[in-house]
């Protein structure tokens, strides 16, 4: 225990060492605050006329932005041209196709607010940031579902060797 002076000089209180710096938001001075870095998917739907160099340039700019905030890009996927369910109207007309990309990243929770500059990007039709939640729960649910399927009576029917040969499933 140590003695800490209060606002009133006549009154002194005894305080445990662990509570000495409790007035500070981070606790003890010099202690690093743990920052949660959840996993996010950033879905980018580009206009179909954008060249590959333009896609790469924007993805690199997003990557630099994430990296400057101590984040990490873990995966970048391109799904190529996709047909849209409806036309997306922009200043240069309606678009019924788009180029879809997915960027997986570990970033700070305020990354959603920081990526709002993408709203002004003329190469994009739409963008969406999705947070990964409950990965462990999803894997156990998948295991439970696969156990139910393997225990099902549907798969207990005997199959003929002809069916296996047709499907290319030789033993």
From TrEMBL:
InterPro entries hit by this protein: Ribosomal_bS6 (IPR000529), Ribosomal_bS6_sf (IPR035980), Transl_elong_EF1B/ribsomal_bS6 (IPR014717)
Acidic residues bias: start-end ranges: 158-171
GO CC terms, sorted: cytoplasm; ribosome
Any Pfam family the entry gives: Ribosomal_S6
One GO process term, biological-process aspect: translation
UniProt-annotated stretches for the region Disordered: 141-171
Ranges of compositional bias, category Polar residues: 148-157
MF (Gene Ontology): small ribosomal subunit rRNA binding; structural constituent of ribosome
SUPFAM superfamilies membership: Ribosomal protein S6
Annotated family: Belongs to the bacterial ribosomal protein bS6 family.
UniProt cross-references to PANTHER family, sorted A to Z: MITOCHONDRIAL 28S RIBOSOMAL PROTEIN S6, SMALL RIBOSOMAL SUBUNIT PROTEIN BS6M
Protein name (record): 30S ribosomal protein S6
Organism of derivation: Noccaea caerulescens
